[in-house]
Design brief:
Layout (H helix, E strand, L loop, with lengths): L1 E5 L5 H14 L11 H11 L5 E6 L2 E10 L9 E8 L8 H15 L4 E8 L2 H9 L3 E12 L2 E11 L19 H8 L3
Parallel strand pairs: 4-5
Antiparallel strand pairs: 1-2, 2-3, 3-4, 5-7, 6-7
Helix pairs in contact: 1-2
Length: 191
């Protein structure tokens, strides 16, 4: 059985099992110390108040996850989000990342967010290809943005307009916690 659902603290172990090796062995995340399961649980609880966090479950195991978070803290940035997606190495190249992002962007659009800003440590051709497939446009490179694993890393910045008419006055953001259960199920199931 395979499906996408809203992440809850009970998914923390599965999320950590995916995130920890990516954090420790790559520069995909600029975090340098793996969080505890309790820290992941708290992050989920804190994030899902305003932003979506989704898991892709295969045979009762978390095979991937995606979430959005604050891009910048100043008030005028509130309509922009920073999405992230991670897929377990055993489940890559099966469309899981694409399914998670499709659902995530549908929810973000419903919530009235206007722009997604993806920051990709380079090189990472798989992530760049995924973002391009959604229509993200490259806007620049931040040279030597972070030091990890004994060297400096550049980040590539990408943007996606989530709504068609970004020139109009933005609508009020609907917090993720306020999306009715039936509506969330429709957004997750593509209805």
């Amino acid at each position: 059985m395979m499906y996408i659902e809203k992440a809850t603290p009970r998914h923390a172990r599965g999320i950590l099992d995916i995130y920890k090796p990516a954090l420790e062995n790559t520069a995909a995340s600029f975090a340098v110390k793996a969080p505890s399961i309790d820290e992941i649980r708290l992050k989920i609880e804190h994030t899902i108040v305003r932003y979506p966090w989704l898991v892709y479950v295969v045979e009762s195991q978390v095979a991937g996850y995606a979430y959005a978070n604050i891009h910048r803290s100043r008030e005028a940035y509130q309509w922009s989000v920073e999405p992230s997606v991670y897929v377990h190495p055993n489940h890559r190249n099966k469309g899981i990342g694409k399914s998670l992002y499709t659902t995530l962007f549908n929810i973000l659009t419903y919530q009235n967010f206007e722009k997604a800003v993806a920051i990709i440590t380079i090189p990472n051709e798989a992530s760049i290809a995924l973002h391009k497939s959604f229509g993200f446009e490259h806007v620049g490179v931040f040279k030597k943005a972070g030091y990890k694993l004994g060297k400096w890393h550049d980040t590539s910045w990408w943007e996606l307009n989530l709504r068609n008419n970004i020139n109009s006055k933005p609508k009020t953001i609907i917090p993720f916690k306020d999306i009715e259960k039936d509506q969330l199920n429709n957004l997750i199931n593509g209805s």
